[in-house]
Amino acid sequence: MPKKKYYSLNQVPAGTKMIVKKTKEEVVLVEVQNYPTTFITENSDNVKKNYMTYEVDIVNWPPTEE
Questions:
Q1: What Rg, from alpha-carbon coordinates, does the chain have?
Q2: Rounded to whole angstroms, how far apart are CA atoms 59 and 29?
Q3: Is the pLDDT of residue 66 over 60?
Q4: Are 12 and 59 within 8 A, CB to CB?
Q5: Contact, 40 vs 22, CB < 8 A?
Q6: pTM of the model
Q7: Tens digits of residue pLDDT in 10-23
Q8: Of 2, 16, 36, 48, which sees the most CB atoms within 10 A?
């Protein structure tokens, strides 16, 4: 049985699309900050906001194994 690869939320690459759970707004990841892990994001109006990991759904994360 092959080992499952673990992906940390600190490994999400900049430019990844995210959906804010509360507002359903689509944002793009600018930077990941640690301790606690938070995402600095930017929306379509170029407004930057910080979100905790549980406040967003990350689109296409983790990557699918091929």
A1: 13
A2: 11
A3: no
A4: no
A5: no
A6: 0.83
A7: 889 999 999 999 99
A8: 16
CA dist 20 and 55 (Å) reads 6
Distance of CA 62 to the CA centre of its chain: 10
Q: What HEC string does 2-66 produce?
A: CCCCCCCHHHCCCCCEEEECCCCCEEEEEEEECCCCEEEEECCCCCEEEEEHHHEEECCCCCCCC
Quote the pLDDT of residue 24: 94
CB 39 within 8 A of CB 57: no
Report which DSSP code applies to 1.
-
